[in-house]
Design goal:
By secondary structure, this protein is an alpha+beta fold. The chain has four helices and 16 strands. The chain has two domains: 3-24 and 134-254, Mannose-Binding Protein A, Chain A (Roll); 27-132, Roll (Mannose-Binding Protein A, Chain A), CATH 3.10.100.
């Protein structure tokens, strides 16, 4: 069984332009002042960024002390659990204003500067907060090549052209270049529906290459051209070489 170690040292592998690699943990938050319904805000965030903001715990909520507008928190009706828009994850942390949430209000927003959240009718209009993450886990199972097509279709660089047209894609199968990237990817992989997650690693031109062209440090010589690299959810071997036709969850990432 083939395995691949993490890329160390990077200076031996990467061209100088990648010395400013921003890392996969990088997340950007964007506030929009225009007043929109919750669904309108969700749609805009998903088209132009990743989704409406998710606040997972007390520490993150403090970071959003001055944030205001719609959050990604909603419920289907008064008898349903509260979920986050991104991935429909059940909200394990909430911090409501006194008397909220109202029985008939199914979407959440916050004022600034406040820590507590408020409920409102989803048809109400508020400003909103989007976030943009570099590493995106797709739980759907696909072959490596189908996963590549999926990632490249997520967002176009030039909106007037198809995202899958030549070099017009903002996203690609993920390249994992540093120890911190690897640690973060394994954390996110815990939510995958498969034990291994496709990455942008593949054997091409007698070398193991990341989809962006970076060379993998380990060299296993001549192997089956149809092998691709999958990240293990657990363990210290990190990667496994698998038949590219196997169907797995996969990582997309926003290119630098």
């Amino acid at each position: 069984m083939m395995k691949i170690g993490i890329l160390v040292p990077l200076m031996l592998l990467l061209p100088p332009v990648l010395c400013e690699w921003p890392g996969l943990r990088h997340t950007k938050y964007i506030w929009y002042s225009r007043r929109s319904t919750w669904s309108e805000a969700q749609y805009y965030c998903r088209v132009h960024h990743t989704d409406l903001v998710t606040i997972k715990d007390k520490v993150e909520n403090i970071d959003f002390f001055h944030g205001r507008g719609w959050l990604g928190l909603y419920r289907a009706d008064s008898t349903s659990v509260w979920k986050w828009s991104r991935g429909d994850q059940i909200a394990n942390f909430t911090i409501w204003r006194a008397d909220d949430p109202d029985l008939n209000e199914n979407c959440a927003y916050k004022h600034s500067p406040k820590l507590e959240w408020c409920s409102d009718f989803c048809s109400a209009r508020h400003s909103f907060m989007c976030y943009e993450e570099r590493l995106v886990l797709v739980k759907e199972k696909k072959t490596w090549e189908d996963a590549l097509v999926h990632c490249r279709a997520l967002e176009a660089v030039e909106p007037t052209l198809p995202a899958d047209s030549y070099q017009n894609h903002r996203y690609d199968l993920a390249t994992i270049l540093t120890a911190d990237d690897l640690s973060f990817a394994q954390e996110k992989a815990q939510e995958a529906t498969t034990d291994e997650v496709w990455t942008g690693l593949r054997y091409m031109a007698d070398r193991w290459l990341w989809i962006g062209g970076e060379v993998q440090i380990d060299n296993y010589g001549c192997v089956n051209q149809r092998l691709c690299g999958a990240l293990l959810k657990n363990g210290t071997d990190f990667f496994r070489m698998r038949n590219c036709r196997e169907r797995k969850s996969f990582f997309c990432y926003k290119k630098p």
